[in-house]
Amino acid sequence: MRSAEILAVVMVTLAAASAEAALPARFPLNLPAGPLGNTLIRLAEQTGATIGSTDPAVARLPAPALRGRMDVAAALRRLLRGQPARAERIDDLTWRIVTAAAPPAASPTPSRPAPPLNEGEVVVTAAKTGTRLSRYAGTASIIAGADLDIAQQGRGSDSLMERVPSMSSTHLGSGRNKLFIRGIADSSFNGPSQALVGQYLGDVRLNYNAPDPDLSLYDVQAVEVIEGPQGTLYGAGSLAGVMRIVPQPVAMGMTEGSLAVGRSFTASGAPGYDAMGVLNLPLGQNVAARVVAFRAVEGGYIDDRYRGLNNVNRTRKRGGRAVIRAELGDWHIEFGAVMQDIATRDGQYADIALPPLTRSSRIAQPFDNDYLLGSVTVTRNWGGTSLVSATSALRQNTGSRYDFTPAAATSPRIFEQHNRIGLFSNETRLSHQDADGRGWVVGGSFLQDDERLTRAFGSPDAPTRILGVDNSVTELSAFGEWGIGLAPHLIATVGGRIEYDHLTGHALGRRAEVGEPRRNERTFLPSLSLSWRPGGDWLLYGRYQEGFRPGGLSVTPTADGPVIQRFHGDNLASSEIGAKWRPDGARHFDAAIAFSHAQWDNIQADLVNTAGLPFTQNIGSGRIWGAEATIGWRPIHALKLSAALFANDSRLTHPAETVGTAEKKYELPNVAHIGATGRIAFTQPLRGAWRLDADARVSYVGHSRLGVGPQLDLLQGNYVLAGSALRLSDGRWGLSLDADNLLNSRGTMFALGNPFGVSAGRQSIPPRPRTIRIGMDVHF
User: Fold this and answer.
1) Cis status of the peptide bond prior to 62, with omega within 30 of 0
2) Quick check: is 10 in a domain?
3) Quick check: 500 and 521 in contact, CB under 8 A?
4) Spatial separation of the C-alpha atoms in residues 59 and 55, rounded to whole Å
5) What is the DSSP code (8-state) at residue 726?
6) Element at 57 (helix H, strand E)
7) Which residues are 125's β-sheet partners?
8) Phi and psi based region of residue 688 (left: phi greater than 0; alpha: psi -120 to 50; beta: remaining)
């Protein structure tokens, strides 16, 4: 029996076995003392119930330890005894925790209870007005931190793409990839063009014109992915959308923590390991800190025939986060820091003309990404209105080395590129929260970004410095969005952003003539959506949104040598219509479907010439059609099934003269025509407080192209990845077994490893071979 058939039989068997097991009304519970928010998450995990709150103060209340066998109602009564909060029962599976002073919510109709507000799963906080997912007029995916096991948390962005088929990336390696959403992808290479996906940790900006920092997702409450463009709320650099990581909050007055370790084994590769720890400590009556630290090594699996080395592409990842929170009356202040270092010993590409997972190169081609961020976030709440001011400063240094040795050369030659990025940003906003979409937000932002790109070429011992560039952007903007109730079930949302950008640039390495070294750009980005609820479970919506990226300078190879040239800003306008069926209460079944069209003008793209040298230019204009659907079903308490599908058709309809002729409609790169994911998850109580959690997942990535133009029109994609996880736990101790790439797929995820050999069409980046991880964790 083939591997795919075996996987299907296992998944069906697990589902059938789970369907036969009905959970009793009483559950074995083992909940350690800690902040109420964390305790409620563990209570939900151990009972399968949906329990949540939208009030951050509730999550920080202290909760006692709770052990024994009881139903959800009894457990909540004991946890909330003496607390300024109470539990509102929606149905047998769904509860909402509210402050004791809040009156019970009225039902929309006499026969229908008020819909639940579950912060970790159904509130799109990235919308900045607290809109419930079922009422959000757009496409968003929310992955609860509790749904990511320790192994998936350590894999960062890769684990999100297994859940969100419209999200994709390049696959050069951790810390050097570019993220794409909904078919909006510019190129396969890294350069001075701005990122397409805005990334945030809470309200703090993580990137501007750098690769995905690929932060590990340890101690995360949720990850939100909202599809773009998101120009009104997030400004430049959100053409494809926004990815927002919501960390676990600091628990005031509580001491708690967790530790986890794991050992991984890769087929045809070297072993690896990972370790992480979380510690929450009170530092005074109104001050507390929360620290996360981790270290991981991913064993290599690529062999180099020329140098006679095995498993050369080992990756080491280490770092952490720290937050100190002070509560000064109604004002809350958080001082945060993020540090992460990613070092890959060699490139992870193979040569399809050689045996699998093998290539031949003269020298090692390492990569390094050093990331350091500091932030201050100030908040104050007045009932449903809140003030947020987030300020951050970051330094990110990346370095790459490539084998640039001609075939007939007797001594090796290298090409090195270093990118030093400094980013300072502030956003201050005032918003009124409304779960049904009638909230509003107004604010302003300031951003200063400086990128210094240096390059060298020649002997590995003493390469010669060649032409580089320095790009700087100063950005000022004001924005607002307002949800207006036009009728009892009809809501319109209107918004706009006014943005001013001051761009400067100059050459590094030698004097060069630069056209327009200074330039100012002014942009207005409108947004409009209309949502209608024909019934309590349905939402129909339409949405229009725009986004843009400013231009910059690039080193462009010519027959007379490299020169500095200007590339211009691009803009994207998108229209979307969709429908959601998301019942209130237990949500046994939910579904959503959306169709979108985007017009992308003056597209920026980082490219390579025939010799492999990188440069950036505007490649023309194009259009993108997209369709996506999601479905979720919970037939019984213990079993959850979900699936998602994304289809994309993109074309460069008006190519620039340097790219090709109008008769050739090139596809936009790196986004599969079809992507799909599926997941089965179930929970089985065992003796005492022990329980077994298991899931099986599969994803399909259809074919795509490496880039635009005849040189880069290379096929990639068309592979299946499958994985599974088992976890045995009693609420404090846990043992886990994870498996990735169960089918040991050898497809081409991304057909570039070394830009100087891409024209030969022989490079392939295969998925990591089948990897098994055994882990243990403890909570205290």
Assistant:
1) no
2) no
3) yes
4) 7
5) E
6) helix 56-59
7) none
8) left
Cβ atoms of 603 and 621 closer than 8 Å: yes
Going from the C-alpha of 688 to that of each of 29, 34, 636, the distances in angstroms are 8, 22, 22
Q: Is residue 25 part of a domain?
A: no
- Residue holding tokens 């809040």? 102
The single-letter code of the amino acid at 422 is G
The C-alpha torsion from 113 through 117 and 121 to 124, rounded to 10°, is 120
Question: What pLDDT, in 10s, does the model give residues 264-318?
Answer: 999 999 999 999 999 999 998 899 999 999 999 999 999 999 999 999 999 999 9
Place of tokens 């960390």: 247
**How many separate domains does the chain show?**
1
CATH classification at residue 217: 2.40.170.20
Range of the domain at 697: 141-558+573-779
Helix axes 72-79, 36-47, angle to 10 degrees: 170
Contact 471, 464 (CB under 8 A): no
How many whole angstroms separate alpha carbon 244 and alpha carbon 221?
11
Residue 715 lies in a domain: yes
Selection from 549, 456, 568 nearest residue 505 by Cα = 568
Tens of pLDDT, residues 82-138:
778 888 776 556 777 876 643 333 333 333 333 333 333 357 888 888 888 888 999
Q: Are 441 and 427 spatial neighbours (Cβ–Cβ below 8 Å)? A: no
Asked whether the beta carbons of 509 and 561 are under 8 A apart, the reply is no
| Helix or strand (DSSP H, E) at 151 | helix 150-155
C-beta of residue 443 within 8 angstroms of C-beta of residue 481: no
What are the angstrom distances between the C-alpha of 474 and each of 142, 451, 500, 522? Answer: 32, 12, 8, 12
Instruction: Collect all residues with Cβ–Cβ distance below 8 Å to 393 and sequence separation of at least 6.
Output: 373, 374, 375, 422, 423, 424
Q: In 290-425, where does DSSP find H-type helix?
A: none
Task: Assess if residue 471 is contained within a domain.
Answer: yes
Neighbours of 77 (CB within 10 A): 13
Q: What gap in Å lies between CA 770 and CA 764, rounded to an integer? A: 17
| Structure token digits, residue 744 | 């040991």
